[in-house]
Amino acid sequence: MLAVTTAAVTLTSVAVSPAQADPYGSLTLYFHTNFRGDYPMRYYDTRATLWSGESDEASSVRNSSDYAFVLFDDTRFGDRAFCIRPDHEEDWLGNPALGFNDKISSIKRMPNHYCHGYPEIGIRYRWP
Predict the structure, then answer these.
(1) Is the pLDDT of residue 100 over 50?
(2) How confident is the model at residue 24 (pLDDT cuts 50, 70, 90)?
């Protein structure tokens, strides 16, 4: 069983509300399918290598930011990758079309809302 001490884990290891961390929202990784799990992992910064205990643990993802994020299965931002656009979510990363359950090891925020050639995942859950 994984023990995490904060409700939201950011790149600086401080639990903060999205409004405090970044007015443009965040990327949230969940430990379980359908956006469940006791401690979602939230990211606001431009690049992150997931920590031990976070790496290879995400089963669903939601992007509530104004930017696209690329999810990599390698800690050095390489190998297989998928992009999730703003206001999109994927409720099960292990679906047969993706095979990405418990695979995310690093993430990169794109400079805008485009995926710039990376394969896209997720469905739109919110309209501006």
Answers:
(1) yes
(2) low
Which 3-state string (H, E, C) describes the chain? CCCCCCCCECCCCCCCCHHHHCCCCCEEEECEHHHECCCCEEECCCEEECCCCCCCCCCEEEECCCCCEEEECCCCCCCCEEEECCCEEECCCCCCCCCCCCCCCEEEECCCCCCCCCCEECEECCCC
Which residue, 15, 104, 11, is CA-closest to 58?
A: 104
For the chain, what is the radius of gyration of the CA atoms? 13
Question: Which domains are delineated in the chain?
Answer: 18-124 (2.60.20.10)
